Amino acid sequence: MMTVYREDLRGLRETLDEYFETLIANQDLMKKVLKGGAIIWRLSSVALTTFFVGSVVNVFTPIMAITKQHKLHIHPIKYFLPNGSVYPWNVTPGGLLWKFHYVCETFSCYTLYAIANSVVSLFCLYVFQMISQLRAMSDRMLHLDESSDPDSIVRDCIHRYETLLKCRNDIEKIFGPVVYWLTITNAISMCLAIFQLSQV
After folding, report:
1. Could you tell me the pTM of the whole model?
2. From 39, 149, 151, 163, which residue has the greatest number of CB atoms within 10 Å?
3. Is the Cα dihedral 43, 174, 193, 191 positive or negative?
């Protein structure tokens, strides 16, 4: 999806970054604008750590299980794959095809890790930038009576709000299919997991 909407993403980034940088440059607004940024950073860090640990556990569990079986002299050794996949063709345990599947599933785990973290972090960044701009507009509107030209402030806030609505539409267009895809994929993954459990 990100490659399909590359130009929209570029435009969204340029639009949000341009105004966000001017807000950060203003010392009076900087604290108000950056309020809540630590929460976004923590959430992104938690997602990053959780996805990474999940990927590592997913990839190394089969190796640890096989090693444990070797140490305990259990025969025949059960060979697992990282995703616990069951294929319609015969995968000889420990054979070349099993190793190929192991490498492919390991690659898919780390690819999923990288893509999921990138998308989540990018989404959080865009939403945070939009919230920051709304805070700045709110602050400007609250201090409208202190301004020498309130009409221009109102006009600027309305223009900025219209821009944010366009950004919101772009975010929905870009990330909406991703959320839909993740929902469908999770449902299919659960069905596959139930199927695989029934085959064991």
Report:
1. 0.75
2. 163
3. positive
